Amino acid sequence: MPPAGSLTDEQLRFFDTNGYLVLESFSSAEEVKAMRDRMTELVDGFDGASAAIFSTKDHRHAKNDFFFKSAENISFFFEEKAFGDDGCLKQAKELSINKVGHALHELDPVFKKFSFSANISSLFSSLSYKRPAVIQSMYIFKQPGIGGEVVPHQDNTFLYTEPPSCTGLWLALEDANKTNGCLWAIPGSHKNGIIRRMIRDENGTHFDNPLPTFDQKDFVPLEVKSGDLVVIHGDLVHQSFENLSPVSRHALSLHVIDTEECYKGKIHLSHSMEIS
Ligand SMILES: O=C(O)CCC(=O)C(=O)O
């Protein structure tokens, strides 16, 4: 049997038309368990203090160095709604963390094994990448009751290369559905190019264009099972809603760029790692 990442012509056509693709049962139950268990250990070892809040609504995390330094380490970010009026966590730290990132692929053996597996490598061969490199990795919790929304965006806005080359990989580590905050995407939206870019300069970060209003009727839910992988074109408009349900929705997200001809110094590459 060909590796799970080796795409058929039909899958490539679907990806080209829609800008996303779901690869069912990409990861085994053992692989998923290994990553979930490892994250439990990492959270156990987290002191609960050295962290920032992550919010895609106001991008407050991008206003301090903690976020940018996290490209080189394993940092913890809290949910916006994790804190009470007294400034203390309302629940245990393991139910308060929004995500952990962004160098899990580089620094942690369990996440490294997945990120550089033969399946991932064959996926990027199928997508005709010449020198694919993982530029960031994050474990997203989408906590029960408080899991924050992720507003509509394109990954190329944040991980810009010339020409654009980012592909997102989103591995479900639990079943994801409309109730617990699955991904939603506008099929075909990747055909319209990049809407806006995040610019980082001496004044901090800003966007070159405002975020347009999208018609929610254009989004389709990407409901998936644990172990399924969603492949996301860098120009695909996607989002996820708040998780108000009592069930978490863990996922691992990797972003991969092609370093062969694309990189023009716009993003910090020193912590990207090539997929052989
Ligand atoms: O997990 C989510 O809800 C959103 C993740 C996402 O948009 C991404 O990884 O690009």
UniProtKB/TrEMBL annotation:
Keyword Iron: yes
The protein's name in its UniProt record: Fe2OG dioxygenase domain-containing protein
Membrane-spanning intervals of the chain: none
Taxonomy, superkingdom: Eukaryota
Cofactor requirement: Fe cation
RNA-binding among keywords: no
Alphabetized InterPro entries for the sequence: Phytyl_CoA_dOase-like
Organism: Leersia perrieri
Keywords: Iron, Metal-binding
Pfam (any one): PhyH
GO MF term set: metal ion binding; phytanoyl-CoA dioxygenase activity
